Amino acid sequence: MTLRQLAAFCESFTTAPSPVLYELERETYLKTMAPQMASGKLQGQFLRFLSWMLRPKRILEIGTFTGYSAICLAEGLAEDGILHTIEANPELAHFGEKYFTKAGLNDKIVAHIGDAFSLIPSLEETFDLVFIDSGKNDYAALYDLVFEKVRTGGFLFVDNVLWDGKVMTDAQDGDTRTIQAFIRKIQTDERVENVLIPVRDGLILIRKL
Ligand SMILES: C[S@@+](CC[C@H](N)C(=O)[O-])C[C@H]1O[C@@H](n2cnc3c(N)ncnc32)[C@H](O)[C@@H]1O
After folding, report:
1. pLDDT at 119 over 90
2. Contact call for residues 99 and 26 (beta carbons, < 8 A)
3. Angstrom distances, CA of residue 205 to CA of 69, 95, 157
4. Distance in angstroms (rounded) separating the CA atoms of residues 49 and 169
5. Is 43 touching ligand 1 by the criterion CB < 6 Å?
6. Among residues 151, 158, 160, 161, which one has the least CA distance to residue 191?
7. Which residue has the least CA distance to atom 13 on ligand 1?
8. Which atom of ligand 1 is nearest to the CA of 160?
9. Average predicted confidence (pLDDT) for the chain
10. pLDDT over 90 at 69, yes or no
């Protein structure tokens, strides 16, 4: 059994995404250069479930892309909850404008266009949940930047930490070594506890103690 077969099997026993997410994924595949960056069905539903379980009041997402994971996470928000999502590429803004409205989440999602490093310091919020899903080279610096804005007992989720399995090898490329260093940093950070889950490309769930 390959990992691809395992993922397909798990997807076949996972509730189908909403029609809006289905349409968003389709448009993402038609109109973007790297559509596989969107969370997709299995990880999307997993994030949605985690959010429903936590019922957060404040979520920060770094790396909106076309808005798939933002919609999944926002669905689990507490009644008066808000999700802030940050995307550096202004050419993607129209996806959020269209699909956050279609999903009925316009009043719950605040979409920021700009660089996360410039925008995060200006967010005057304490977050229950932060989802880091942007450039892999930025993970450690973003983790450090956002850490003090996460409440004690709050969570950070970070995506793509298995890097197609390469983190388990001695691959010498920069991306692999950066992610290896990042997960080692988390594993040795005494301020948190963490669990690395092999969903899609690997998701590390971190709880601030
Ligand atoms: C993997 S995609 C996000 C996928 C999305 N979270 C999902 O699951 O559907 C990463 C996104 O992060 C954005 N990004 C990269 N560096 C960034 C930065 N410093 N600030 C804001 N966005 C950034 C990229 O433009 C890209 O759209």
Report:
1. yes
2. no
3. 15, 27, 5
4. 31
5. no
6. 151
7. 63
8. 1
9. 97
10. yes
Ligand 1 pocket check: which of 62, 65, 161 to mutate, most ligand atoms within 8 Å of Cβ? 65
Check if 146 has its Cβ closer than 6 Å to any atom of ligand 1: no
Q: Is residue 88 in contact with ligand 1, taking CB distance under 6 Å?
A: yes
Token pair in block for residue 168: 């388990």
**Does the CB atom of residue 69 touch ligand 1 within 6 A?**
yes
- The 10s digit of each residue's pLDDT in 83-96 is 999 999 999 999 99
DSSP string covering the chain: --HHHHHHHHHHTSPPPPHHHHHHHHHHHHH-S-GGGS-HHHHHHHHHHHHHHH--SEEEEE--TTSHHHHHHHTTS-TT-EEEEEES-GGGHHHHHHHHHHTT-TTTEEEEES-HHHHGGG----EEEEEE-S-GGGHHHHHHHHHTTEEEEEEEEEE--SGGGGGGTT--SHHHHHHHHHHHHHHT-TTEEEEEE-STT-EEEEEE-
Ligand 1 midpoint to CA 96 (Å): 13
Distance 89 CA to ligand 1 centre (A): 8
User: The whole model's pTM is what?
Assistant: 0.98
The pair of three-digit structure tokens given for residue 106, joined into one six-digit string: 């316009």
Structure tokens given for 116 = 């996360």
pLDDT reading at 154 higher than 90: yes
